[in-house]
């Protein structure tokens, strides 16, 4: 018997209400901030991610799903959402639009990594990008959107963590200071950090291994090595967050795993600690579009995984509305009643109701049990008498009361009880 491959999951009907809740809240909040939806292809040219994400990142080195198509083109299943949106921005001349261009998207993400809670080899992401404006007010807007999104989902006790990692002007000197600090401590670090020391020293600050924590705490801080322009940007962002009343914590150890980040980086985290607890993270990427072949163009955005958000909604028992309304079940007794019921069901569905026909070959008692098993709000019993009178005997499944309702009145009667608009 076939099973789903390791690291992917089926999204079953009972899970749909959480996913639709996340998508609906995200869409509503994006509209409130004036963001428009964009959808990019599931696969892109591999070079887009090698150049955009960074050749020395774990994503490019170990996690991308790369394949050669029949035309000998090397393609990659999308491992992150920002680079494809920036490619679309360039390809379709969006620089001619009013800046910043505000975009949001929902997409599957593919990474070959160890499956873990809330993160699979195929996972799903909600993301936003604001491209074309370097002002820290845009950073504050993006963070505010992410904070409001998490709040409106119903999550509680969240923490916003922010940092500035500088830019191409000041980061080289910081990285040199960081490497000098760690040089005499390499023998005490975990194996991963020894590799990061050469490939991507900024990620040394992101290690979750217990043995590396004391060295991170005493490491040089990015905030102490910012150039004047980055310090001004950072100071103004903090002032805007204070103005908006968004609580935050500054953390010199907060970095992001992609090479394109500059200046502002941020994460929203739930009360649960751990390396995989973040529910939303992002930052500024002012050099990415230039790296992809375009003119210098600032940008900032975030990504938020559906799976991890749903995991936290369940942990916190956040209220989530059902996707499917409680149905109306038509219970029929005899061939004429079944024919009448089929026509009646079509009319009720056209009126916006969710209607099921109980299995007609079963007894009336078995059909009523079926109505109960699907959590029906009403069972409409149809027999010879109802066919003759062009009516239905409506049984309230909650109160067990029953009354006959004329066919013409059935749509409004049932809609009122089921909450159908």
Low-pLDDT residue spans: none
By helix and strand content, what is the structural category? Answer: alpha+beta
The beta-strand count equals 16
Radius of gyration: 28 Å
Can you count the helices? 15
The number of distinct structural domains comes to: 2
Describe this structure in words.
With 421 residues, the protein is α+β, with helices and mostly antiparallel strands. The protein has 2 domains: 13-170 and 226-315, Bira Bifunctional Protein, Domain 2 (BirA Bifunctional Protein, domain 2); 328-418, Rossmann fold (3-Layer(aba) Sandwich). Helix content is 38%, strand content 20%. It has an 8-stranded mixed β-sheet with strand order 1-5-6-11-10-9-7-8, with helices on both faces. A 5-stranded mixed β-sheet has the order 13-12-14-15-16, sandwiched between helices. Strand 15 and strand 16 form a beta hairpin. The radius of gyration is 28 Å and the shape is elongated. The two termini are 44 Å apart. The mean pLDDT is 91.
Characteristics of this structure?
8-stranded mixed sheet; alpha+beta; 5-stranded mixed sheet; BirA Bifunctional Protein, domain 2
Give a brief outline of the structure.
Strand 3 and strand 4 form a beta hairpin. With 421 residues, this protein is an alpha+beta fold.
